Amino acid sequence: MKNMLNRRTMIAASVATSIAMTRIASAENSQRRKFTLDLRCGSIGVQANQKEAIELAGKYGFESVTPDAISLAGMSVDQQEEVLDLMKEKNVVWGSAGLPVEFRKDQAKFEDDLAQLPERAAALQKLGGKRMGTYIMPCHDELTYVQNFRLHADRLRKCTKVLNDHGLRFGMEYVGPKTLWTSKRYSFLHSLAGLRDLIDEINVDNVGVILDSWHWYTAGESIDDIKSLSNQDVVGCDLNDAPKGIAVDQQLDNQRELPMATGVINVKSFLEGLIAIGYDGPVRAEPFNAALNSMDNDAATKATAEAMKSAFALI
Known about the structure:
The chain is globular and about 50 Å long. By secondary structure, the protein is of the alpha/beta class. Helix 5 links the parallel strand 4 and strand 5. It folds into two domains: 1-30; 34-312, Alpha-Beta Barrel (TIM Barrel). The longest helix is centred in the first third of the chain and has 29 residues, at 2-30. The protein starts with a helix and ends with a helix. Helix 6 (145-165) crosses helix 8. It has helices at residues 2-30, 50-59, 69-73, 77-90, 107-126, 145-165, 178-181, 192-202, 213-218, 223-227, 267-276, 290-293, 297-312, and strands at residues 36-39, 64-65, 93-94, 97-98, 131-135, 139-140, 169-173, 186-187, 207-212, 234-239, 282-285. Pfam families: AP_endonuc_2. Keywords: Isomerase, Signal.
């Protein structure tokens, strides 16, 4: 009996230890970074075609690269295969493509771009792309908030349905600076809460958010706002810092800094929010910075990679 009790005690202790170790491993795994270090050349002033962008990504340690849906759709099968082979060689995957539809202007232009979207979405899907996104301008000179909301919901719903037919997720980015949303006669949505209203109105399963530390900061949001989302809600992400000595309501949208450049934006908290929700998509820099734009391709890509890696080291 004594030996049996000792054996039971040992088994119970072993099971408890195993459960504890599993919980620890699970907790550690949940805190690991799942998102990719992404290169989007146009956002850092780099002029590069698709293959050149992949080469730069591999050279400077990026893990994903922005696909150009228009370019990919215009390639021959052999050219597409060359792109995939190069990606494999450089050990990079696709990030999030830009929406190749001008939905903000006249109806004729919108309908023309929309008609070409199925072919471009199909090319992206064929080559393994899964994400596409755009930004939402937070103001308009002619349309009231309600009119603008209806236009966005109607046109983007049509785009979203096409993308959904091709297995692509679609993300929208709200734009936060007060200097921009007050710059025209009518303001429009400029916060996560406002964007979620538009997502609900579009009401298609593949629609989500593009987060940006810059807009998160200028909209006065916190890590709790990020934690209110799930990984499935977030399609893309931008990481930026802000100039020093400028009040948040006076920040200008086209004058940003690379992440970690000034410490004005709490990049660590922002990234911790992404970790907490298990975000597994691309994170790229989008500083619209004149000094960076003046560099040659290699210098700009290297500077961006170093800044992003420094930020990622915080978590």
